[in-house]
Amino acid sequence: MTEHVLAMTDREVPFHPQKAALLVIDMTNDFLREGAPYECADGRALIPRINRLIGLARGRGLPVVCTTQVHHRDGADLGMVRYLHPLTGSGKALVEGTPGVELHPDIDFDPATDEFLVKRRYSAFYGTDLENFLRRRGIDSVIITGVATHSCCEATARDALFRDFAVYFVSDATATVGLSDAGWGSYSAEEVHRFALTDIAHFLGRVGTTEELAGLLAG
Fold it and tell me: Which GO MF term does the entry hold, naming one (predicted)?
């Protein structure tokens, strides 16, 4: 028997480039610099493509929102993060007031035009003013870039869908890390990334390349 797999198509998933916001997820030092606590080496390669999209978004007058995950020095806001991420729980990463939570210096962030959003969990929507910020500007679509594909980027895409924003997930402007064996085998960064993109395309929104998105924004 042939298994029929349902997948979203461009026709089924609305995306309005003229009413979109570019979300740059966690392109910060604690994820990108060499030897960082949560180093995502593939994330550094995204910077030119993300900067290109930032320029295109600004050129169209679209909001650009760069996020950072930050926790108080006393750990009062950690919650379950304390147990799931020992580096963060012990104060070795994502600590308020440290260089690690600052945007990587090569990201083309302009404080005069762009938004810098502090979040406490994976999703850029959870416990933040992001939804209100987007609604006030008439935004109904979000573009997801940054790190990591299967965690903070995917969580943001999922929460966007739950709030009825159309999602455009940029396949070559997102990156992740490999996963060690937790009982079901280990997975390389490429395998995690490919699976996450497939899952997102089936259940959360459109997945496309920087070049494809650039064409939509230019048009």
Answer: hydrolase activity
